[in-house]
Amino acid sequence: METLEQTLRSVLQPITHNLPKPLADTAATLLGESCYRSLVHNINISDATCMKLAISKALGIAIVGASAVVKIPQLLKLLNSQSAEGISFLSYALETASFLISLMYNVRNRFAFSTYGEVALIAKQNIAISVLVLQYSGKGAAGAVFVAGLAAAGYAMYSESITSMGMLQYLQAGAGLLGVASKLPQIITIFQQGGTGQLSAFAVFNYLAGSLSRIFTTLQEVPDKLILYGFIAGFTLNAIIAAQMVYYWNSPKSKATTQTKLEPKGEKAAKQALGANGQTSGVSSGSQRNKPSTRRRG
Asked: Which regions span the lipid bilayer (predicted)?
């Protein structure tokens, strides 16, 4: 190990000792002064504590980055097929509520954004998916009520004058249970229908990898058992959904729909979801919902 470190130092230290100040400051902020000096300045890769922290930070940043697009394939499948078959609104509603609570809890505790940033990004995508599921189920008007309710709840939890930190801790404990409960309707829906319908394989397997990585980053950076237990439970149920995805892969009820781009029909559906066509959008999407899909899996 010492020989390897000496070799790396001779190659890397001329670079790490002359990093641009903004880059050096960012790295020092992420790792802390001691670990920055140990890993970057001194190239001490045998420092196990700092190496674990660096890996955790890298995973956290990667998770946040991937979360910006993790649900996009699911959105495209919904828009292009104009069908919500195989997707449980209750599952998305519970998960979004859980994410909203966790987001407010992390923000008010001032935890590092790299440890929870994906919660905010995925919650936004979940809201869009939930609205589409309601629309394609003939309940388009309920989407506005759903969004308004989330906005009101978010404000109430963010305001210290409305929700105390003690109460928010209880809500965070409940968020873990909500996160677990949010997976059960989806698991049951897949089992009952004998297929995954319009569920996106990309989203499912990325969720599985992300929840596993979050267990590691939480152990390293967040001294909060409530958050850790929630991620462990979430990973377990994500693994069940991933197993169902594999088991029902070739099932006739696992709809094969192009999800790499937004097709003309999907563009029209997107405008309807935004309210461009008023209340008629719910009727239109409802009629499309019953048409069989002949598209290939994206």
From this structure: 58-76, 88-107, 170-191, 197-216, 228-249
